[in-house]
Write a structure and sequence with these properties.
Layout: E1 7-17, H1 21-29, H2 31-39, E2 44-47, E3 54-61, E4 64-76, E5 80-89, E6 92-106, E7 109-120, H3 127-151
Antiparallel strand pairs: 1-7, 2-3, 3-4, 4-5, 5-6, 6-7
Helix pairs in contact: 2-3
Amino acid sequence: MTTTEITHSTFTLERHYAAPPATVFSAWADPSVKARWFAGPDAEHELDFRVGGRERAIGRHDGRVLTFEAHYQDIVPGERIVSCSTLSAGDALSTVSITTVEFVPDADGTRLVLTEQGTYLPGHEQPAWREQGTASQLDALAAELDAAATRG
């Protein structure tokens, strides 16, 4: 019998955005906006943003096809999003996660708190890689919000 270890990990990322919670929340809910900052220009992206809805992004990294799929469990507009997701590399399941995104009003904008609880299957993604990738997406969200503010 082969023994393989599964890694469990939780991380929390916080960001401050100079936009009200409704605006930041909308960047998660609007399919075209989310595709720009979340999936990138070369990925396929679908978003059915509602409780029971699904999100799917397919892209490439280091020559591998990566498929992210999320199902929305709880949505409170302007306040929080809770989803369950998987990430697969080719046909191999890599991670299973629960993610909570909170939008907290702050004096001059929004404090976003993202907590992800993940199960990382052996031989695939590492928790540090997922945290780094998620942090990069939140930075891309900042750029998207800044660009929208400039467009006015």
